[in-house]
Amino acid sequence: MKLWGGRFKEEVDYLMNQFNSSLPFDKRLFPHDIKASIAHVTMLCEVDILSNEEKDKIVYGLKEIKEEVDNGELKIEGDYEDIHSFIELNLIEKIGPVGKKVHTARSRNDQVAVAMKLFAKEETINLIERLNNLKDALKIFGDENNIIMAGYTHLQRAQTVTLKYHMMAYFEMFKRDIKRLENSVDILNESPLGCCALAGTTYSIDRDFTARNLGFNKKVDNFLDGISDRDYIIELISAFSIIMMHLSRLSEEIIMWSSQEFKFITLDDKYSTGSSIMPQKKNPDGAELIRGKTGRVYGSLMSILTTMKALPLAYNKDMQEDKEQFFDALDTVSNCVVIMTSMIKTMKVNEKNIKDSVKMGFLNATEVADYLVNKGISFRDAHEISGNIVLYCEEKNIPIEKLSIGEFKNFNVKFEEDIYDFIDYEESLKKGIKKEILQG
Ligand code: ARG
């Protein structure tokens, strides 16, 4: 069942036939190919290449095939080279020889390019919606948990922040991710339909018509580029990779925070698993899997970048390799966003441990230095004095705020009673631009 038997004497080898077929995976492009085919024949009729009657028959046939696939009567399987062959051959079987006219002024090269772009657009919009749900979940979680917490650098306790502010950092990352996806859609939004195999066609077809009809901003400017451009797939998978990197960083924190060492959060049972040998174990598998699957999406990015490298213009069969990578990366990132959203919505916060995290670790040492700066000491000298205080407290195993005023004064005479208020963890968040942290 081939669309191109004419110049061949021999059947294709059995293994080669399987090797060549993309139907098992490109069947996902079915609705998009039907849609583009309907737009194509509608245009062919507009420019008088097909009669009204022919167009109606073909559109009817395509819609019937869609209906039959949707209701399960027709299965997308069998010895077809790809989804495009499947649709065309089934169309001919259904409506007879007039079906053979569907491929006038079209090639599978522009056909696959347009179907893939329609698919990519639709799925990216779905992903943006999922990311918006994740952003909402982070915001709600933050509003419900506006509690003081240690902020870290180098995984060492550094300065006071709030749990809400910490989570809102991820909110910002996902906000940028959405912009990246929107921008990718904006760039890909040009129709390749009508570029044909590589060099357009001798027919005066109307590419603006199909571009408009399919919801593209415009038609592509160059036929060769139109059928061989896979930039948008690379760009989207690279945006997916950045999303995964963000999800993986958040996962890593969730994994740490749910450990006995931190005990900041408790994951819901629904997103944890147990151990087959250690009865006490509750493992953060959801977060670990997201962290792990990040590598898989990066792999897809490397794969498609490498496939496209050094391909001469225009279409080469190598490009068929874009599909499995794109579908897998898309499914992975979409699932990870959904799982992360549910995990955030259901995890419980151990407020006491989070609040306690600010107490040990000298998180107010910078405020001690700031205090001295306010009293006229240079920041570098104040830094040194505060460092000496930390050393002293470390030896005595007490936090800075537990020093007596006499001890403070031993380090510098400028210390007064108001130092305690100044270095209070909650109070310090009300000063200067740190107010932004409290406001979240
Ligand atoms: N299945 C092919 C792909 O995914 C469709 C294009 C085939 N074109 C061709 N000239 N063989 O790339």
Structural class: mainly alpha
Classify the oligomer.
Answer: single chain
Which small-molecule ligands are present, each listed once? arginine
How do the SSEs run, as a string of H and E? HHHHHHEEHEHEHHEHHEHHHHHHH
- In CATH terms, the superfamily of the largest domain is Fumarase/aspartase (Central domain)
Report the mean per-residue pLDDT as an integer. 96
Distance between the termini: 62 Å
The top-level CATH class of the largest domain is: Mainly Alpha
How large a portion of the residues is in β-strands, by DSSP E? Answer: under 5%
Order of strands, main sheet, comes to 1-2
Radius of gyration: 31 Å
What's the number of domains? 3
Level of helix content? 55-70%
Shape label: elongated
Q: Biggest sheet, open or closed, and with what strands and sense?
A: 2 strands, antiparallel
